[in-house]
Amino acid sequence: MSAALAFALPPALEAAEPPEARGLARDGVRLMVSDGARPPVHARFLDLPAFLRRGDLLVVNESATLPAALRARRADGTAVSVHLSTPDPGDAGRWVVELRRDGERVRDARCGERLALPGGGWAELVTPYLSPGRLWIAALELAMPLSDFLHEHGAPISYAHQPRRWPLDDHQTIFSRVPGSAETPSAGRPFTPRVLARLGHGVGVAPIVLHTGVSSLERGERPYPERFDVPAATAVRVNAAHAQGGRVIAVGTTVTRALETAAMPDGAVRAASGWTSLTITPERGVRTVDGLITGWHEPDASHLLLLEAVAGREAVKRCYAAALEVGYRWHEFGDSHLLLRDVGHAAAAASG
């Protein structure tokens, strides 16, 4: 398996904030367009329709972000945050959680530890989840349904790179419809009614759902299982777009993961739902996605391997160098990137 790209992220680029806070509409963020071996093009996200063509299909994620961060207190009085990631795949009554304190993960948690939550609730750590010491399966004891509890006591998950905490609405996209993500499926944030209106009648939009877990993976750590749903109507539209010579553009790595999970070896997509453990690498390649819209990811992030699977390592390397040179903004409130599949790279991967 090839290693993800390694590069130094300048401190000035680390902190990103919503474009609204910088006096910009969401669709005013910068957009880099990478198309095979051609030099990258710099534009604004509002210009996205100019880089699409009749017959293309945008596939978007309808998952909405939960206020999944809860204040908690350990038995010794230490304040921590409990970040809900996903329900336990083996027991829907329990949740996979991460404990964090002062911007770092808690490393001394133990089985059976009980954490006091607001409103008289409790979270008990039952067992480590897959990666000992980082994620835990927790049993929650609450006086009300979880959704009500989160909306009364929770907050959006945030990290040190965010200059301040932003309300839940800033963590949603125009497509948000089905609550369930621990963190924002952020590739969809720059879409606005203006962008959608500019698409015209020749470019379609179809939905999937993939509920994201926490993104605070250790360097080199692969994504964990996540819940997804590719509806039959979207599968039909994906297959029709390909049959008519159009391209399927995934809005986000989440959409790419869902579509590729539902794709058969020949690239045809079927309706599918459940949990996906798929990790997309250059060796595995992509079967049905012809391009993706995404943000800018950290050095060594596993998402970079997915980008390489779509566009090729050299194209990704070239674009990241250009982004660093001109100061693109990183993270979920940052700038955007359209990568179109390198046909030559795809052919070489298929023959290999």
Strand content: 25-35%
SSE ordering? HEEEEEEEEEEEHEHEEHEHEEHHEH
CATH level-four homologous superfamily name of the largest domain? QueA-like
**CATH class wording of the largest domain:** Alpha Beta
Can you tell me the CATH topology of the largest domain? QueA-like
Could you give the count of β-strands? 18
Please, could you describe this protein's structure?
The protein has 352 residues and is of the alpha/beta class. The protein has two domains: 11-65 and 165-351, QueA-like; 69-153, Thrombin, subunit H (Beta Barrel). Helix content is 20%, strand content 28%. It contains eight helices and 18 strands. The strands form three sheets. A nine-stranded mixed sheet has the order 2-1-18-17-15-3-13-14-16. Helix 6 packs across helix 7. The longest helix is centred in the last third of the chain and has 14 residues, at 313-326. It is globular. Mean pLDDT is 89; it is low at 11-15 and 344-352.
